[in-house]
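This section describes the prediction task in plain terms. A model, or a person checking by hand, is given the sequence of a single protein chain and must write out its three-dimensional structure as a string of tokens. No templates, partner chains or ligands are provided. The sample shown here is typical of the held-out split.
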Amino acid sequence: MKQDRFLIGILAGIGLLVILSLVVFFTRHNNQTYQADDTPEGVVHNYVLALIRDDYEKAYTYLADKEGKPSLDGFIADLYTPSDIGVDIGRTRINGDIATVEITIVNNSGDPLSGRWTYEDQATLVRQANGWKLTSMHYDFWGYHWYQDASK
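The expected answer:
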């Protein structure tokens, strides 16, 4: 009898922790907001957030207007952004009209025992008349053939 209460207490505690973690995940995930897009890191943040929210038209506005830019339909067709991925934005380097933003890709495994893993990459932007625009990004958020040099 005493062991049954102990087991029920443990199971109730586990259930409470699962519910609490789900509440924290969903409230944190939905509280993300767009930032000012007048900096390279703001553009990267807004681009990724627009993709996560399936707002492809907004995400498309952050692509550079230059040769190799996909059409909006091609942009949407080329994308497959996993729902369990996120980006931490790091240091920005600006050299004239070119900016490089360090990013850390955070991939949360669907398996609660596997946890999450991260890796480093970067986004490249160019300053145009209408602000900073992306010319390359991590492959989970980008089409491999966009902006490729046609002479290669």
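For orientation: Helices lie at 2-30, 40-52, 56-60, 72-78.
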